[in-house]
Design goal:
The complex is a heterotrimer of chains A (102), B (405) and C (167). With 405 residues, chain B is mostly helical. Chain B has helices at 2-6, 8-42, 58-68, 79-95, 125-135, 137-146, 150-181, 186-191, 210-223, 248-273, 291-309, 314-334, 336-365, 371-403; strands at residues 196-197, 201-202. Chain B has one domain. In chain B, helix 4 runs antiparallel to helix 6 (137-146), helix 7 (150-181) runs parallel beside helix 14 and helix 11 runs antiparallel to helix 12. The longest helix of chain B has 35 residues, at 8-42. Chain C is mostly helical. Chain C is globular. The chains are: A mainly alpha (102), B mainly alpha (405), C mainly alpha (167). Chains in contact: A-C, B-C.
């Protein structure tokens, strides 16, 4: 009975994290940037669960629980800020937020 | 053939899924028939009567109508989301039924040795059913948004906001049952409800958790968007809410998804509060295994009486077929080995039918809530009551340990 | 024996496909749907890794609540739905390859790290039970648990205050 090696999950996690970074850097819509942050957090969660299975301990799963909760709190506050920004500037593009630009 | 003998579990599961899907779709169709008949009788009229004897072929006629109706697609800006929403709603509604056990796990399929009455038996079955219900919100929200029109957008947003608000109360009201049972596994929860107080009152969770059951039922009605919580899709309010712009088969998918959600929620209520596939009569009453057969035979006798006296023409022929099926099924169920096996599903189905009757009864009699009344009811009354129920249940459960130090 | 392999490949393909769709979509609602697909396939991977409770929590909280929040905000702020991706030349010809280099480098080093090769195929695959997880959560990690509940309260208050209309 062959089981998937843990390193395969880690590679998948790395790929997802890298794709999240690429999305974060290259997208202009502030909500899409937020979603790329959630993608990066998900990739990290996958790595945590893979390691928890590898070492056969439950601490990794507890940490995943906390990451999900913190991501929820961050999404709520962040989206409230985004709504206020959008209503103020009438646009969702990050390039328009240039009031503090040098 | 080698594949079948090497992977018997997989093949058995696929066959079970196909059979369950067929049964659920038929049940959905006849649930619409039952709803129309019951509401009609509440309103002193007959309901479907002429399409087949007593309107029994009405669901078939409706299905054919939906298949052949013209599929009008409004000028939507987002084809992908517009087409995806009904598929998402229906597939999620049907997936939740895969986790439900319809009978005791001791009944096995002879050749394969697998449980006959449930497709899966996961240790966290309850959580997964709630997870699937949680994603069901997307079907409604995306349908409303992609329709490119005012009424569906308002209806979709209101409906999905209502669904996520009552989802919290739904989950909280069930945690009391989980505390009593000590597990999230459906079969274990049902087994924990076996046994009797005073030898004849069954130990169902509805008795210690009455408030939990009432909260659950109210939240479930709101979750499935039924009267009295159906303002977002009522015909007099927002045209038809989020499914205004959908026609023919896509509308049929939303329609079926709503009834499938109703069936899922009733199955959950039966498992969590009413003992699932356990019988309400003590085990020492041995005659109870003949109840399904007796019931079917009585139905057959009534149908025979109706055939001979009331019906005319082709309805007579159809009702004669129904009579023969009922009598045949009844005699089959009176045969003791079959009667033993069919006990679990029989009690489960009876309890679900009673709960669905309550659903339909409420649709026929109650007026609907206004939207702000609905939301304040969910957040300001139902959630605190569910939380209080949870705290009191937890307190009562640890009281013996608190007293003994 | 081959079934875990099929499920893993399918879910991995769906997850990477969803992430790529997130990058390449023009409408934010399509990116949100792609992200939901990623989350659900990751939940299936958690089930495969023997963590059913985390899979259920991922779907209920992440895909069923957080992404609903995202979808609502996208629907309410439906301006600039069409996002034109006209990158500068530097971004296209230097940035994207550098991003790919990051992905490949991270993947390679994670796969060949001493810890990964020492772990091999992982221990026996009996799933973790909810009871054990809750024992850990409420005994060893009680303080972070209470701290996160206060964090959620703060986030709730913050979001309420900010989203209120000016009176």
């Amino acid at each position: 009975m062959s089981v998937i090696p843990v390193s395969w999950y880690l590679v998948l996690s790395a790929i997802l994290f890298g794709l999240g970074v690429v999305a974060f850097v290259f997208k202009r819509n502030v909500i899409t940037i937020f979603m790329s942050i959630e993608l990066m957090l998900n990739a990290v969660n996958l790595a945590f669960v893979a390691f928890a299975r590898a070492h056969n301990q439950l601490d990794g799963l507890v940490f995943v629980f906390f990451v999900i909760v913190v991501a929820a709190a961050e999404a709520a506050v962040g989206l409230a800020i985004v709504i206020m920004l959008a209503q103020h500037r009438q646009s969702l593009s990050v390039e328009r937020e240039n009031l503090l630009k040098f | 053939m080698g594949f079948i003998t090497q992977h018997p579990v997989l093949v058995a599961s696929v066959i079970k899924i196909a059979v369950l899907l067929f049964i659920v779709m038929t049940a959905l169709a006849y649930l619409t028939w039952a709803e129309r008949k019951i509401i009609a009788h509440i309103q002193s009229r007959w309901g479907p009567y002429f399409v087949g004897a007593h309107g029994l072929l009405q669901p078939l006629a409706d299905g054919l109508k939906f298949l052949f109706k013209e599929d009008i697609t409004p000028p939507v800006t987002d084809r992908l989301v517009y087409t995806l929403a009904p598929f998402l709603a229906l597939s999620l509604a049907l997936t939740a039924i895969a986790l439900i056990p319809f009978g005791p796990p001791s009944v096995l399929i002879p050749v394969v040795g697998q449980q006959a009455w449930s497709i899966t038996d996961i240790n966290i079955g309850l959580l997964l059913v709630f997870a699937i219900t949680a994603i069901g919100v997307y079907g409604v929200a995306l349908a409303g948004w992609s329709s490119n029109s005012k009424y569906p957008l308002m209806g979709g947003l209101r409906s999905s906001a209502q669904m996520i608000s009552y989802e919290v109360s739904l989950t909280m009201s069930v945690v009391g049952v989980v505390l009593l049972a000590g597990t999230l596994n459906f079969n274990e929860i049902i087994k924990g409800q076996s046994g009797y107080w005073f030898h004849f009152i069954p130990r169902w969770h509805v008795i210690p958790q009455v408030i939990g059951f009432l909260c659950y039922f109210t939240a479930a009605i709101a979750e499935t968007n039924r009267v009295p919580f159906d303002l977002p899709e009522a015909e007099t309010e927002l045209v038809a809410g989020f499914h205004t712009e959908y026609s023919s088969f896509k509308f049929a998918m939303f329609f079926m998804a709503e009834y499938a959600n109703m069936i899922t929620v009733s199955c959950l209520a039966t498992i969590l509060f009413f003992g699932g596939w356990l019988s309400p009569f003590p085990d020492s009453w041995k005659w109870q295994i003949f109840l399904p057969g007796a019931g079917l035979v009585l139905l057959g006798i009534y149908c025979a009486y109706d055939t001979l006296t009331e019906m005319r023409g082709i309805a007579r022929l159809q009702l004669a077929v129904v009579t023969l099926l009922a009598l045949g099924g009844g005699l089959l169920c009176l045969y003791p080995p079959v009667a033993q096996v069919i006990q679990g599903p029989f009690w489960f189905t009876t309890k679900i039918l009673v709960i669905l009757f309550f659903y339909i009864w409420m649709r026929g009699t109650l007026p609907r809530f206004r939207y702000d009344q609905l939301m304040s009811f969910g957040w300001k009354l139902l959630l605190p009551v569910s939380l209080a129920n949870l705290v009191v249940t937890a307190f009562v459960m640890i009281w013996p340990w608190l007293r003994h130090g | 024996m081959i079934l875990p392999l099929i499920i893993f490949s399918l879910c991995a393909l769906l997850a990477v496909g969803g992430a790529v769709a997130l990058i390449l979509s023009r409408e934010p609602i399509h990116s949100a749907l792609a992200l939901i697909l990623v989350m659900v396939s990751l939940a299936v991977l958690y089930l495969l890794l023997g963590a059913p409770f985390v899979a259920a929590v991922q779907i209920i909280v992440y895909a069923g609540a957080i992404m609903v929040l995202f979808v609502f905000v996208i629907m309410l702020l439906n301006m600039e739905a069409e996002e034109r991706t006209d990158f500068s030349k530097i971004a296209k010809f230097v940035g994207v390859p550098l991003g790919l280099v990051l992905i490949v480098w991270a993947a390679y080093w994670l796969a060949h790290s001493p810890a990964a090769s020492a772990m091999g195929t992982g221990a026996a695959m009996e799933p973790s039970s909810t009871r054990e997880l809750s024992k850990q959560l409420f005994r060893q990690y009680l303080f972070p648990f209470e701290a996160t509940s206060i964090l959620i309260l703060i986030a709730l208050l913050g979001a309420l205050v900010m989203a209120r209309k000016e009176e």
